[in-house]
Specification:
By secondary structure, this protein is α/β, with parallel strands linked by helices. The protein is 21% helix and 20% strand. The strands form five sheets. The chain has a five-stranded mixed sheet. It has a five-stranded parallel sheet with strand order 11-10-12-13-18, with helices on both faces.
């Protein structure tokens, strides 16, 4: 898929800027919608007493708790455990000793309920316990033999092969030594934020990976980008591509067991969009949907078909973009649709009609479209952001909202959300979140992670059901 040396490439942020960015990122992820009530329950009563919250996934977005940065900076789960803080919402101890409804949780402590039989295929089903306590194990049964196919120690790299499709994965992280393990898949997709385990402890997580060729952008990256088949990457405390991890001594990742099987019917979360959304190859850049898988529990599979430079009309009429999504949609799937950055030259009414066409085609398949206005550009006039996406044919967020009303589908006003965010940072704050510190349109990993958090928070606060029930 990509060489280890390329995997270890770093983005352009200085360590000082990154340290500041990480602190603000984890705070921003919980703005407006992180009550902690959706944290998956755990059978480990120590989840709220030393690792910062229910298996490190407190809050609806799932970027708190056992993350070493979050715990040590009080941005999601108390480092001392137990007590809540101003970002995480519900007390970290609400899960672990009885806990909340596990819902669609895809994680548990080893030693819980027996796993599913290994081999074959799986389909989406109910997981978790409505009455609290330990959620039943979901996903394929992990084993040492599959783990033996992986190489390296930091990072741990697993090239597992297989045809394009959906793959359920169960990873048991931790082991004999203390560990800090972040999980990525395919083209720098974030599957799990860093998971801290103490010596002798292990934790089990299940998730679904969408495997495609090319594995990143469907057109921009060329037809053969990446290594065919399923690829997983486990990074330590220094982080993966495009990020600067925690300071101090490196804490390596640990992977004890691994299970993989093809999945016939996950809950599909498809994404249509442009370069601000896509799975970027260059680690100086990151699209927000590249970070989105970490916000969702098993059995949600994020299929990000966004591609650089696309407008609504070009995406709609490309068989490798909307054509791919439309041919793979199943009843009950979701489609996030975001355009506007590259649509200034559309004929009057064309943008409205093209977005409407995607919506109606998705609805005809029994899927649930969700409209998303584009994230703002960091273009300032004095201390405030300039007017965004106002073209000769209309204003993008206004037209998106109009279509959502006409078609009775949800609408996330990401333009307004990010405009408020930029205005609060001011003209000298946005650089830490953008590619190379100079690109006013495209984000780096820290910016993409923040915007993915905004999208997840909006799904929860707007009660976009049943998708909100799968949030970590």
């Amino acid at each position: 898929m990509r060489s280890i040396s390329f995997d270890r490439a770093r983005g352009a942020l200085t360590s000082a800027a990154c340290a500041s960015a990480r602190s603000v990122v984890f705070l921003a992820l919980f703005v407006n919608a992180c009550s902690g009530s959706d944290a998956p329950a755990s059978s480990d009563s120590s989840a709220g007493s030393g690792t910062g919250g229910a298996l490190g996934q407190s809050g609806s977005v799932g970027h708190a708790g056992t993350n070493a940065i979050a715990g040590s900076t009080n941005n999601g789960g108390s480092a001392a455990g137990g007590s809540p803080n101003d970002a995480a919402g519900a007390p970290a101890t609400s899960a672990g000793s009885g806990g909340n409804s596990a819902g669609s949780a895809g994680e548990s402590e080893i030693g819980g309920a027996a796993g599913m039989p290994s081999g074959g295929t799986s389909s989406a089903g109910s997981s978790g316990s409505a009455n609290g306590g330990s959620p039943p194990d979901v996903g394929p049964t992990p084993d040492a033999a599959t783990r033996a196919k992986c190489t390296g120690t930091s990072p741990i790299v697993c090239h597992l092969g297989g045809n394009p499709g959906q793959y359920a994965v169960t990873a048991v992280v931790g082991g004999s030594a203390a560990a800090n393990t972040e999980i990525q898949a395919e083209m720098h997709r974030l599957m799990m934020t860093p998971i801290v385990t103490t010596a002798g402890a292990t934790k089990r997580y299940s998730f679904v990976v969408d495997v495609r060729t090319p594995e990143g952008q469907p057109v921009e990256d060329g037809p053969t980008e990446g290594t065919p088949g399923l690829d997983l990457y486990f990074y330590g405390s220094k982080g993966g591509p495009g990020e600067t991890g925690s300071s101090g001594a490196t804490v390596a990742p640990l992977l004890s067991e691994l299970g993989v099987e093809s999945m016939t019917k996950p809950v599909g979360l498809w994404v249509a969009g442009d370069s601000t959304v896509c799975d970027q190859t260059d680690t100086d850049y990151s699209g927000w949907a590249q970070m989105l898988p970490a916000s969702f529990n098993y059995p949600v599979s994020v299929g990000n078909l966004a591609d650089s430079g696309e407008s609504a009309v070009s995406f709609l009429h490309n068989t490798n973009m909307w054509g791919f999504i439309d041919s793979h949609l199943q009843s009950g799937d979701f489609v996030l649709i975001q355009f506007g950055h590259n649509d200034s030259n559309d004929a009057s009414g064309a943008f409205h009609d093209d977005i409407t066409s995607m919506v109606t085609q998705a609805k005809a398949k029994g899927a649930h479209p969700v409209l998303v206005s584009p994230p703002a550009r960091a273009t300032f006039s004095g201390q405030t952001l300039t007017t965004q996406f106002s073209y000769g044919w209309g204003v993008v967020p206004t037209v998106m909202k109009q279509i959502s009303t006409e078609q009775s589908v949800p609408y996330i006003d990401l333009t307004s959300i990010t405009t408020d965010w930029y205005n609060k940072m001011g003209p000298n704050g946005w650089q830490a979140y953008h590619a190379l510190g100079t690109d006013k349109t495209h984000t780096n990993r820290a910016g993409a992670l923040t915007i993915a958090g905004f999208v997840a928070a909006a799904i929860k606060s707007q009660n976009i059901s049943p998708l909100d029930g799968y949030l970590r």
